[in-house]
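It would be a great kindness if you could assist me with a short task in structural biology. The full record is reproduced below for your convenience:
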Amino acid sequence: MGDLDRILSVLGEARRRLVRIALVLAPIFGFLITFELRPISVRLGAVTLPLAYPYPSLFYNVTAQVFGVLRNWELPPNVTLLNLGVGDSVIAQIELAALLTVILGMPWIVHEAAAFLVPALRNNERGLIRQIGIPATTLFAVGTLLGFLYLTPLTLRLLFLYVAAMGAAPVLGIESFIEFTLLYSMAFGITFELPVFIYGLTRLGVVPASSWRKHWRGAILGSLVFGMLVTPDNSGITMLLIAIPMIGLYFGGTFFAGRWERSTSARPPISPIAGGA
């Protein structure tokens, strides 16, 4: 098989995996924007279970319900949301539905991505992926959840304190609110992947742990730049709230990478079996 045939084979396999992902994600996305969840209580003896059933609703759908939860949780109580553009509400629902679709379909996305990549990996790389797959997914979920529940509401409260100090009306556009909430929370989730990234490169022998310790100043500068790029506003507050945890995670990843290196170097070498006399 020539190089062109191999490239076409890889592209064909990638296309097949992407189609399989789309076949799973498309129904999820369609459900989120065309159905609402109506609450219902089911009694089982002395226990009442709060459940929900889907009901067709093009406008007040699952995405709109999730938006209501985000609005009540994230925004300070004195802030008013405005629909500034004609299609802002539609765009906000589509963006939120897309994020929820990716979150709900993430196990299938990871499965298809692994099935595509694993045949091309060496044994040590496959073992590393198996070891860090669950921690990486857990850290991303924890970081994003912390961003949604704590960091984003805290940031919005701080920013609107400046609005109040200027005597301006505390209002916010719907699309700006969705973009800020989603991007900021997901950026915080991405920062939680940094220890896994550092540990993985050290395990593969690409970057020694001493190099991570040596370039800590560059890591601090890079954290500040990353915080500046991923935050959707121009204030230094949001940049610092991303950069400071990222710096701590960098040193945490460096610590675990160094500990793994020390444990590996401390293992006694395997002596060959002596031949017969």
